[in-house]
Write a structure and sequence with these properties.
Shape: globular
Number of helices: 6
Radius of gyration: 15 Å
Number of strands: 2
Structural class: mainly alpha
Largest sheet: 2 strands, antiparallel
Distance between the termini: 26 Å
Order of helices and strands: HHEHHHEH
Length: about 140
């Protein structure tokens, strides 16, 4: 119940706007056809940005225990291109929102979520969003 309440408050008090930013980045990437790998990551993270409480973003390599294309040279190149094209402005949006949230004690959990999303915005390729319960038993 608390998770639901936090997600609703998040959505109303800024999560909706940042989620739309991720969707916009995803649509623009998808239009180019070449940007489809980035679009896929954008849409996955947009849903996380809409409803972050009860979910965690984790590296796919840490989740599965084995490397994939996203964690090799192609993933690095993809993340560098992403950062130069769209990652920095999404990160700035999340950091700005976090600073606004930190202005009150009630906003601290929301600010922390924004900072997590800002880090993801810098390099989203290779990240997977999973329910927190799935990670509860992990070392």
């Amino acid at each position: 119940m608390l998770r639901f309440l936090l997600n609703v408050l998040w959505f109303v008090l800024g999560g909706f706007v940042m989620g739309l930013g991720w969707w916009l980045a995803g649509v623009l990437a998808a239009i180019t056809i070449v940007g489809l790998p980035w679009a896929r990551a954008c849409f996955r993270i947009a849903n996380f940005s809409f409803w972050p409480f009860g979910q965690e973003a984790i590296s796919r390599r840490d989740l599965t225990g084995r490397p994939d294309l996203a964690h090799g040279p192609l993933g690095l190149i993809g993340n560098v291109i992403w950062f130069l094209v769209a990652g920095w402005w999404l990160a700035i949006g999340h950091v700005s929102s976090a600073l606004a949230c930190f202005a009150s004690i009630v906003g601290i959990p929301f600010g922390i979520q924004h900072l997590k999303l800002a880090l993801i915005a810098l390099a989203p390729i290779g990240m997977e969003v999973v329910p927190s319960e799935r990670l509860a038993g992990r070392p």
